[in-house]
Amino acid sequence: NQRDRRMAENEGKVKLLGCWASPFSRRVEMALKLKGIPYEYLEEALPNKSPLLLELNPIHKKVPVLVHNDKILPESHLILEYIDQTWSNNPILPQDPYEKAMARFWAKFIDEQILTVGFRSLVRAEKGREAAIEEAREKFAFLEKEVTRKNFFGGKTIGFVDMVAGSIIPFCLARLWEGMRIDVIPEDEFPELNRWIKNLKDIESMRECIPHREKQIEHMMKVSERYKLA
């Protein structure tokens, strides 16, 4: 029937160009695993960029890139929305228009402000380390409030904001902070965020996307050193 044909077409061939250390790649893998979508993963040995990556994403020249039935999609937010609309099981984005718009708002806030303040401000710390930590905690207070009394940002089940935040906070920034020997989101000050992190780690498909801890810490420290010199 038509539904079976559509499902067969959607299965198609799915390829993901990514990098093990990229939170943007990790979040796409989270979505693919959550929805049970078979895919071929192609690791990019960044900072070297393969001819295939340059061919598929000539504008940004970055991972991730998703290829589905010869359709090419760059940029993690776009890829997550495409995956959600193409495979209807285990929805990632809310159906309600307002809730969907707010999910996009928080995802943008995380990538544009949380990532910036959690990495750049702490690495460079132009005004001093304590001032940078305070600036970061002011941003995290918004997320603490947003996830209060909820299992996940998406409610009872993991969703769009959880994948964006989950790929950035516990599995990227926290590894940087660990290497720097600082705790930006202590449990006594951010109990809800820490509870959310525990909930996230309880999901098998999320754990499968977590980079090796020591390897990630080493990588983040190297990135921070390069950033200081830039």
Could you give a quick summary of the protein structure above?
The chain is of the alpha+beta class.
Description of the structure:
The protein is built from 10 helices and 4 strands; from the N terminus they run αβαβαββααααααα. The chain has helices at 2-11, 23-34, 51-56, 76-86, 97-124, 129-147, 160-180, 191-201, 204-207, 213-229, and strands spanning 14-18, 40-43, 65-68, 71-74. Strands 2-1-3-4 form a 4-stranded mixed β-sheet, covered by helices on one side. A hairpin with a 2-residue loop joins β3 (65-68) and β4 (71-74). α2 packs across α7, α5 crosses α10 (213-229) and α7 (160-180) packs across α10 (213-229). The model has no long low-confidence stretch (mean pLDDT 92).
What is the share of helical residues?
A: 55-70%
Mean pLDDT: 92
Oligomeric state of shown chains: single chain
Choose one word for the global shape.
globular
Task: Give the termini distance in whole angstroms.
Answer: 57 Å
Radius of gyration, whole Å:
18 Å
Biggest β-sheet: strands ordered side by side in the sheet: 2-1-3-4
Put simply, the count of helices is 10
Q: Helix- and strand-based class?
A: alpha+beta
Count of β-strands: 4
Work out the strand percent: 5-15%
Task: Spell the H/E element sequence.
Answer: HEHEHEEHHHHHHH
Low-confidence stretches: none
- Main pleated sheet: 4 strands, mixed
Domain GST N-terminal: 12-91
EC number: 2.5.1.18
Subcellular location: Cytoplasm, Cytosol
Protein name: glutathione transferase
Features:
60% helix; alpha+beta; 230 residues; four-stranded mixed β-sheet
